[in-house]
Request: fold
Amino acid sequence: MTAAFLDFLGWEQLTAAEQASAVGWRLPGAGRLVGGPGLVRRPEATMILAVWLLSLPFRFLAALGLRRSVILACLFVLAVTAYGVAEDLGVLEPPARATPARKPATSCRPKPTRAAVADVPRSYLRLYCKAGARYRIPWSVLAAIGKVESDHGRVWLPGVRSGSNWAGACGPMQIGCVPHSKAGNAWARYGHGRPHDPAQAIPAAARYLVDHGARRNLDRAIHAYNHSWAYVAKVKQLAGRYAQGGGRR
Reply:
């Protein structure tokens, strides 16, 4: 039975060298499979075995009495079906399409620039943009916090330009800077230099937001900055205006 099955598969049609190389044997009196005169090299043996195995479906279908055209049509349908199933299962990935590179949402490109700068001083706008890009959070959120807390440093209230207010907050971003005060002393952890310097206060606010999960849940990070959901809603409303290019109330 074994001999009949091998004959059906076309095994007897292979030469002795091809049979030996297909199963990894050595011919009598021959040296190693990978060298020596009259031997079948390993790459050739592998290719012969692969071609022989690929021919098995054709031999099987031919034995059933099917014509070659019908066999090829069946194999084509089978190949298309297998490709579709593999694509649906995620085994095959569609070819990547060339798309223009997009800048991250944290980049500072107010539209139109004139409308945004009309409310945000240019020096502050540059600082918001720089901190947003560096810490990968929306610059418009930093600008909205600066607007709510001190109108970008323009209000004359205690703690904005010097000292601290009644809660212990300091600087244009109103970060807590007094130990054991109501606002706490977040500056000791997130700030460098003077909290009244916007070049130091704005990056400190960005670090505070990132440390409180701004990249995962921006609302909770803003709420941690000021424990009021009304504050969160106001900051997000202003941030949306700044992102669209309008800064005035």
Remarks:
- Residues 23-40, 93-106 have pLDDT under 50 and may be disordered.
- The longest strand covers residues 169-170.
